[in-house]
């Protein structure tokens, strides 16, 4: 009999086995990546396109955002209410994807209703109408969001640290203002929709689809006009000073953000920095949480993370601190960094981090949809599934001394930028 009072022994798998999606090419040259899931009748169809580096002026930087978010406001055949009722009736959902580097649409439906909803989903790429009344409503909502983000110290800190790291003229450091909202017109949206929306797409498909359903995708997307984009990303203009401070006399807390530009995932040192970040502030048992949250009580939450971009990753520490303790908190962050860079982790900490990261990695592959999400993450950065195999191997074999050496090379205090928003 199984004794349920005794937990099973923890075992780290020797390897992670991942099957690459099948790749096809539609008649118009668009690549399609397909994961067949005969055990699941749910279907997810994603059309993802680049959003960064397109030839848009700073004044028109919000046009892509409004274009994407108004696609469901109506087409030539259906208004917004009819679109909502249609997708609800067929138990389907359309989701908008907007990000620093990619944009697109996804359709979640069932095999039973796939053939009915696919033509309507396709119409969003060619027949959107962008009604003026709805545009004005969305512009008012965006202005309200901009004002709220400015008033909230945490949201404002997030904006300013990106500006500090990337530069105010870089797409990743750009901060929306009301004047940018005013510059958005129906004509500007239509021009973007016609010229830049259907540029260099890739299709990611997951579900229980047979030859008939795949033929339907070829039918509706194989003849769709897509263009090859021309991209030109501006150079980074990192803030020259060590710190940027924005005084808020009436704020009840200070939001602090520390950060720096790091290396891309293709760099051999990336996995070591991932381990170092986890130890510092990447999980609830991290050093920053124990020091600043549990021992000092300066904040309810503090964390650090690695942000992913195609060209490079970046690193940040985020915390909202009780009034009067911002400087002391920053000093403690640097103290923890110094320890990380000069003293090897102990065996217990190494074991905890190793088990946490392996478990977290494996949990990201619990469903076919997760599998496609993980594939997209590396594929859109020019990598493949071997990235995860190397990641698992490194998690199992890293040494405390190596993490210390790599940390000291990349986390030098003089290379880290600071932002404080608060009283």
List its salient traits.
423 residues; alpha+beta; Cytochrome Bc1 Complex, Chain A, domain 1; 2 domains; six-stranded mixed β-sheet; five-stranded mixed β-sheet; 11 strands; 42% helix
The helix content, as a percent range, equals 40-55%
Largest beta-sheet details:
6 strands, mixed
Corresponding CATH superfamily of the largest domain: Metalloenzyme, LuxS/M16 peptidase-like
Care to count the β-strands? Answer: 11
What is the H/E order?
EEEHHEEHHHHHEHEEHHEEHHHHHE
| N-to-C span | 63 Å
* CATH fold call of the largest domain: Cytochrome Bc1 Complex, Chain A, domain 1
* Shape designation: globular
Integer-rounded radius of gyration: 24 Å
Structural class determined from secondary elements: alpha+beta
| Number of structural units classed as domains | 2
Secondary structure tally, helices = 15
CATH class of the largest domain: Alpha Beta
- Percentage beta strand: 15-25%
Strand order of the largest sheet: 1-2-6-3-5-4
CATH architecture of the largest domain: 2-Layer Sandwich
Q: Stretches where pLDDT falls below 50 for ≥5 residues?
A: none
